[in-house]
Amino acid sequence: MNDRRPGCRRYRGFTLIELIVALGIFMVLGVLSYRALASIVDSRDRVAAAQLHWSSVTRFMQRLEIDLQQIPANLPDALTYDAGRQTLRLVRLAPNGLGDDVRTIRYRWRDGLIERDERKFLAPPMPKDVVEMNEPEVVLDSAQVVEWLWPANNQVSDAGIEWQASPPAAGSGAPLALGLRLRLAGVSGDILRIVALR
User: What is the pLDDT of residues 46-95, one digit of tens each?
Assistant: First the structure.
């Protein structure tokens, strides 16, 4: 005979303590997962920002190098520097070396920005050309220190080049190379770039 009555079945479930322990475990796992995900997203954002910053530095250096390598070697004052206005002025030939598309390029450092402008070459430069920039384009931001370096007396030896901060005298030709020392915000140390002009 079966003693069980249809209405008296006992259902075994979780106790309250077992539910609290399970919820606690899920909560700990959720917090750990959230922290790991937040750390990954934060790292990704920092890497993307650093990559964007160094990409802009690379673009600036490449553009500067292209401009400097197109300076005519036999033109006096093709490369000059105004320390008071912190402006580097250069005369650049056409990119393909043909035609009469000679341009005046200026790089100016002001308020942490390096600006560049370009205009048709005028010889001799008008005073307005020296003072005002024509629609300057920001080519690099966050520049705390910008220092242009010239070879001392255009000497070259096996031991290397001695550098000086003061530009060559007026009327002299372009030097063999030009150095640029940059200090950027958020970057420890200086960046030094040497560009051979010939």
Answer: 899 889 888 999 999 999 998 888 888 777 788 888 888 888 888 888 76
- Residue 11, H or E segment: none
SS3 content of the chain, % helix, strand, coil (to 5): 35, 30, 40
On average, the pLDDT of the chain sits at: 81
Q: How far is CA 145 from CA 62, 81, 113, in A?
A: 19, 16, 10
Rounded CA separation 18/24 (Å): 10
What's phi and psi for 29, nearest 5 deg?
-60, -40
Q: How far apart are CA 98 and CA 137, in angstroms?
A: 26
Predicted TM-score of the model (pTM):
0.70
Q: What is the DSSP string of 82-129?
A: ETTTTEEEEEE--TTS-SS--EEEEEEEETTEEEEEEEE--SSPPHHH
Please count the other Cβ atoms lying within 10 Å of the Cβ belonging to residue 92.
Answer: 21
CA distances from 147 to 28, 50, 70, 82 (A): 54, 23, 21, 12
Q: Which residues contact 90 (CB under 8 A, 6 or more apart)?
A: 67, 68, 71, 78, 79, 80, 104, 105, 106
